[in-house]
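Input sequence (437 aa), recorded before submission:
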Amino acid sequence: MTTETRVKVNLEYVPRPQFVAFHERRQRWAILVCHRRAGKTVATVLEMIRRAVRDGKRDGRYAFVAPLRNQAKDICWKYLKHYARPLFATPPNEAELRVNLITGATLRLYGSDNPDALRGPYLDGVVLDEFADIRPQVWHEVIRPMLADRNGWAVFIGTPRGKNEFYKLYMDARKSDAWYHMLLKASDSGILPASELAELKAQMTDEQYQQEFECSFEAALKGAFYATELAQMEAEGRIRPIQVEKAIRVHTSWDLGVSDSTAIWFIQAVGRERRLVDYYESSGVGLEHYAQVLHDKRMGHGIRYGEHHFPHDIGHRELSTGKSRVDTLRRLGIEAVFDPDAKNVLDGINAVRRMLGRTWVDPNRCERGLEALRQYRREYDERLKDWKSNPLHDWASHGADALRTFVEQFEDAHASIRPAGDKEPQQRPSGATHWSA
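Predicted structure, token format:
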């Protein structure tokens, strides 16, 4: 018979008054919308350590997830090692960014850019940092199921990035007793001196300051390519539910992923007007899955397909098989239309901007695609402190690139493009469906 010995451990942490209620909460779910330098990372790291001890699970598994693994390491690893040091069972694993506690629990850092690394049997608790920059499917399809059988908890933290998944989560949390929620503005928290806030205001644009320090979801996303066009669409009532006209063919436009997501827009063209009537995105599945999606939508909604537009590199053949994805798609009944020549990305972005001026979008069926367009933005050069010309490649790129493919190919009716399998470029076929009934 064994007896347990309890030891009191001092973690050398005194919570800021603003986070005391968070630590004392009883809700399973929590969301913290906090200004920069408020201390949310330290508070949630300590919460993770504290819960790993108090939950009393000898096989407990806890995770801190940032948009990128290197980001998690830069912002969190030193805090985790410092505060958990009195509880180390073994030295920290630098390669896996993992610490093992004397209680038997493990705490580990992850990046949402590699969701497969997250997959496992279970999680007892998780912190999702800068959730506005994390692909929502990582939470819904990977992390949330891992919490189910252990009744695990989750904390979402970050600053706003427009009205995206983080915004919707916060608004839903405000209506539910099952959630603890906090919105902490710099003007209210008292954490940063008034003199520092005044200097920040002078050095930043109003949109930047409102977003980063006043936690405004209304502020325009920095570097967003389509912010002006989407705001105009919203003002003109062109973002609203749309009825799919069954007499009008539905074109699809794709961005194909291998290790990441594949995105598909479903588009109707009525004169010069464009209607984004549906959107689909998934990852970790083969082309057979997407062919089935098209089939199900055709059967379920009675739509007729027009052209299926794909990126320029779809015709590249694999050395091992000698076949391309064009061949696979044809076998599945989808005749791909594509231009074998790569286009200038910024030219394509400008073309999308022009098309959005005469575009309607269904916010329900296209919810994720619309959010991708809102989030699609320039990459920021931290060294030069300036915007790069090229887009940031993140989860929003897939939906944005898929729409750009459509604009580059369909919009120019006189462009010479090559349907799959043709040796010489020929004129794009007008209106004929390539989907086998």
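Checked by second reader. The first strand starts at residue 29 and ends at 34.
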